[in-house]
Amino acid sequence: MASSVSSLLLVVSTLLLALFALGTHADVKRYQFDIVMSNVSRLCHEKVMVTVNGSYPGPTIYAREGDRVIVNVTNHVKHNMTIHWHGLKQRRNGWADGPAYVTQCPIGSGGSYVYDFNVTGQRGTLWWHAHIAWMRATVHGAIVILPAPGVPYPFPKPDVEAEIVLGEWWHADVETVETQGSMLGMAPNTSDAHTINGKPGPLFPFCAPGQKHTYALQVQSGKTYLLRIINAAVNDELFFSIAGHTMTVVEIDATYTKPFAASTVQLSPGQTMNVLVSADQSPGRYFMVAKPFNDVPIPADNKTATAILQYAGVPTSVVPALPQLMPATNSTGFVAAFHDKLRSLNSPRYPADVPLAVDRHLLYTIGLNIDPCETCLNRSRLAASLNNITFVMPRTALLQAHYYGQKGVFAADFPDRPPARFNYTGVPLTAGLGTSLGTRLSKIAYNATVELVLQDTNLLSVESHPFHLHGYNFFVVGRGVGNFDPAKDPAKYNLVDPPERNTVGVPAGGWTAIRFRADNPGVWFLHCHLEVHTSWGLKMAFLVENGSGSDESVLPPPKDLPEC
Fold first, then answer.
1. Residue 487: CB partners within 8 Å, gap ≥ 6?
2. How far is CA 105 from CA 97, 228, 458, 472, 534, in A?
3. Which residues belong to the signal peptide in this entry (predicted)?
């Protein structure tokens, strides 16, 4: 009898283990992205533009931590195309990262490429976008990574979740706008409107009955909503607020934060943020507002986009309430105070593994420059640089050249410091603004710890710059105004619970210090996420060497990798 019971228990245990294994087995999520031309109308203007699957914004990618994601991208338009999965680390798999001529050659007209990657050790809100020229203005969408099965959020579970994608709209073809600016050597025209989920809202004039220019989120009184906010704007930093409602920030760039309350949040292009909002006000209609942050005298789209938080049962004839106390467009102090509140959760399950010892100290100065151009207006063109180097994109993908040992594509000699020291944020410098041109990478040893200080300068003008590092998260250990002081400023670093991000804003006339461990081999792009500056050359790349053995080396390229 005892033997029979033992046998039965063994069978039951085996079945339970099998069921558990099935329940925790990672899924494969498959998507088809068709790059097509679509007719889209906004604000009395209809145009034909590039989209994914005919939608603007594009489809949301849903996955869980641990899943494998396979996206087949087929290009049906005349333009070259790549897709970047912004914030996904792509460990050892730069082939799936997406920036054109950095990790892959573009997908040509009529071609296809399969982006095949694992979602490892990440959960939260990220996003995808085109990564060639200015195509991301219309080719972008959300990535929602849910926790692994059975793993709860480290904050109260929301009743409903929704994506809020902030963007920009041009009446003209965006590629034409960028090309015209480049030919003249000047800044391209600013956008004609900001958008929330592709729509500018009712504060702009309506043109025809039935055209839906406003996004509305219907809510039920008493319920809590998780809003996954993405700044997909091309060139503008943005504030976001909801009339009459307080938000609780719980995540940035797919990393959990210590929760804090905010009536207004601020995101730079490329950044994401999750906030909790309770529908706890009198039933009504409340505006959600996106407006620009711009604290320097440089032209920007100053228009406000709106959407509506719509309580169920309230007639749409009710006029929505506007936020009462949003910060001014140039509110530098508000932005600094907001970012000072951002802290990593740093819990036992989600620790902040900040590198305490540093192997490589880097200082990169950010410059806006003027280079000669015989065919441009005034025989000069606006340029941008890191350490006075304007990056020149190659015609062969850097990762391919590195993997196959191809010579003559790049030099691995990007300097650790600027060529000359000066009062970086003193009076504006208007002479000697030329740069050196080059395709120069910084070589980093595998597993080295890196501290990078990004220093804004007053070459032409100071300006805020959001920088995105591909292939990594990093810790924002310090930031300040003026010139970085290596003797004094590190003593003020937060090395306990600094915010962990993939995109960080460098304040106008100031500096930001980040740290990361270079444990992901490959070629990884670092660039300003203001597209106008990226196109002027404000970019470079790290070449992280292989470590020991295959588990610390770049994976072989896929067979369908596009050719240049």
1. none
2. 11, 31, 35, 21, 18
3. 1-26
Question: What are the residue ranges of helices labelled H in 465-517?
Answer: none
Q: What single-letter DSSP state applies at residue 402? A: H
Q: What one-character DSSP code corresponds to residue 411? A: B
d(CA 294, CA 288): 20
What is the band of 429 on the pLDDT scale with cuts at 50, 70, 90? Answer: confident
Residues in the chain: 564
How far is the C-alpha of 324 from the C-alpha of 291, rounded, in Å?
Answer: 14
* Rounded CA separation 124/178 (Å): 32
The span from the CA of 268 to the CA of 238, in Å, is: 6
How would DSSP label each residue in 229-292? Answer: EEE--SS-EEEEEETT--EEEEEETTEEEEEEEESEEEE-TT-EEEEEEE--SPSSEEEEEEEE
Peptide bond into 209 cis (omega under 30): no
Domains of the chain are 26-151 (2.60.40.420), 155-344 (2.60.40.420), 360-544 (2.60.40.420)
Indicate the SS3 state at residue 6.
helix
Q: What is the pLDDT of residues 451-506, one digit of tens each?
A: 999 999 999 999 999 999 999 999 999 999 999 999 999 999 999 999 999 999 99
Burial of 437 (0-12, 13-18, 19+ CB in 10 A): middle
**CA nearest neighbour of 339 among 453, 506, 206:** 506
Q: What tokens does 299 get?
A: 């032209």
Nearest to 285 by CA among 244, 333, 256, 331: 244
Note the pLDDT tens digit of each residue in 97-149.
Answer: 999 999 999 999 999 999 999 999 999 999 999 999 999 999 999 999 999 99
Are 367 and 388 in contact by the 8 Å Cβ rule? The answer is: yes
Q: What single-letter amino acid sits at 290?
A: A
Q: What is the pLDDT of residue 17?
A: 36
The per-residue pLDDT for 3 is 40
Beta-carbon neighbour count of residue 205 at 10 Å?
Answer: 9
Q: What is the strand order of the sheet 28-42 is part of?
A: 45-52, 28-42, 68-75, 112-118
Judged by phi (left if over 0) then psi (alpha if -120 to 50, else beta), residue 90 lies in left
**3-class secondary structure, 127:** strand
d(CA 511, CA 493): 13
